[in-house]
């Protein structure tokens, strides 16, 4: 007997094609409330709220019981549908595919996972064909109305995804009529307009496609006062470029017309089950700005978020970005962690949170923030600002409790059902015993293991690691005995008890040496490598091979997770296991001992890295240090908490070049904390002051720059200090940017001579670079030629990539007017050299000068494309002093290209910001463009991008 349960239209129940009478409106509403959560218990209070809202009748529970009784009688003739009373409430049980809503979502999930556009389009069409009209039109309660609205949004989102898939499959003509009608109904929908443009273009109607863009752009300006989004502009540009594949721009390009970024961690194990949860996430990501996955430790929240983000990254034009908070201990570090995940540096004049908000305000991306629970208030505050001010950003968070942010949708992550739990156990067991066959195991043994572990993925994986040394039946018996013996923590939920019991049991099965290493490894934040594990955790007499042997055993037993990477193999502990290990250290009163060893180890590592930054191995040291930034933060906090000022000063002054140029400005704030508790007589005082002053300079805090740098009393750091952290240099840079290059030149000339006397090649290249820059700023670049040439010679002797980049840039700058071709080659080489060691600041200025030189002496179209890349680069690096300079160059190019309206707009933005413009108000008037109100910096960048995109 075939039963169909329909919600996508009016409420209907069909048995063998025959429609049954569901009853009056209240009874139909009870049925809808159960079907929406099919196979899940719905508490009676929730049912009452869904059906009666705030106006329940007298003896409402009796009325509810009556409706449920009549519904049971309705399905009495069917063995496919049952309504039962469960501990958690009332539950309607049936095959989910019998309910059109859940069949719709299953088909959508299948379409999204299909690698074939044609197949995906067919599945989307099949899913959409299940809709028979507006949902539940005869019902009118607040809950039903909310459900109806949410499902309509979900349907429209799927229609857009279907359009993308069909366009990718080349079905342009088939879609054209529907897209024309939809665009008329929603004339301000930019995604729809982009799809219509591509369908018109693919059908041979290029003129109509361009006209669609012009009409949409005009409507956006007239009705909303905004320019087209980056994705719509990208679609327009592809049509202008005659893109032969004609694929839709929406899922394929980012905000700057490049493939969307992906910072997701590598998935090192297969993903089992969670089909329903993935479908719910897929729908929720299109329905609101924030979805929080909640659940106990070990429930699989992180793995589920990673899987969902991986599957849906094509939906977000600017990609998917992953931020891990587990390693953080301080609320103040949350903003820095998000900025680091976005590869974003703090902007001048803004704190780190404001930097993140400003950057995300114009992006269309998915931001995954993992493990929020221990920093809940700080994470919630930042996410609340993102949700409120960044309309194109969707946040997917994981936490053991909800964030409490407006607009938050909460999805509890339940334990795995029995079949998925058994499948997970079998998959993980085969990793250690390839011959493991679930069908050959004693009947019910694996199911009993999973039942005892409450379906918690972490507990199941830990237990499965033991299948190498005992059979599943023995494992089931031992787990049962453990639970009876342990019982878990008093007052803990059964799930928490089983997880704690499983971890405790796994720990007790380790050898004594493995137990010791596991507990000590918990002092690391974010991960570690073999050298770190040995340096912090090993016994004095042990060799690195001994540590590797123990570490290998922990990996094999699923206690430690292997994180393979490029060049450096890293390991980590799951956060639940790390917390267990820290408790062991506290119980044995040795937590402080190993926290201290951790701080000492990473201080020594930072000092070696600081020296390595000035050698040919600069790139290797950058790659080595970047994954350990969380460990460096923890080490600094430990040194400060212990009152070990010397250790804190050694650590922070070793980070100026690595942290400042690659990560952000957070470490310069540590420098202020460090020197504030020491005196000016400390040998590293000038270095710490210089680092703090450089941070203030980059943040645009000009007054603080002077006051901080003055603390050094004219002293310079010792040889080998980070290039960016000399107090006198920072003051000279202030003078240079304030239009006093003569002051800067006098300083750098004196420092150049001192570097020669001290035979310090790295410092000599730095000062020669600035001498050449100062002469260029004085409009006498030829006077700086000798300094630039010497810088190249000295840099070559060091083979240091940053030194070579600086020297090449300096030579290009003094040659760009008289020998532009040679200058272009030098700029390109300088940018590549800096990029090879992730020195983003030097890479950016080389890219910018190359684009500016090509704009004058080379290909204007190529220059336009390069300026777009520079706009994006400075936007991410966060240096507005360089971005304003870039906008000056762009203004000049736009005048040459005849884009006088755009050039005039950028001129006014520069004037409003107090920056020099290449134009005058008179020149703007001569162009026939009167001066207008100046745009903000962000809007000026958007205007520049929009204008350049027409010419590249």
TrEMBL record:
It comes from the Bacteria. Gene3D superfamilies: P-loop containing nucleotide triphosphate hydrolases, Tetratricopeptide repeat domain, Winged helix-like DNA-binding domain superfamily/Winged helix DNA-binding domain. Belongs to the AfsR/DnrI/RedD regulatory family. Pfam families: BTAD, HTH_77. Residues 1-94 form the OmpR/PhoB-type domain. PANTHER family: HTH-TYPE TRANSCRIPTIONAL REGULATOR RV0890C-RELATED (PTHR47691:SF3), REGULATOR-RELATED (PTHR47691). Keywords: DNA-binding. GO terms for biological process: phosphorelay signal transduction system; regulation of DNA-templated transcription. It comes from Mycolicibacterium vanbaalenii (strain DSM 7251 / JCM 13017 / BCRC 16820 / KCTC 9966 / NRRL B-24157 / PYR-1) (Mycobacterium vanbaalenii). Signal peptide: none annotated. Residues 1-94 bind DNA. This is Transcriptional regulator, winged helix family. PROSITE patterns: OMPR_PHOB (PS51755). GO terms for molecular function: ADP binding; DNA binding. The keyword DNA-binding applies. InterPro entries: BTAD (IPR005158), HTH_77 (IPR058852), OmpR/PhoB-type_DNA-bd (IPR001867), P-loop_NTPase (IPR027417), Sig_transdc_resp-reg_C-effctor (IPR016032), TPR-like_helical_dom_sf (IPR011990), WH-like_DNA-bd_sf (IPR036388).
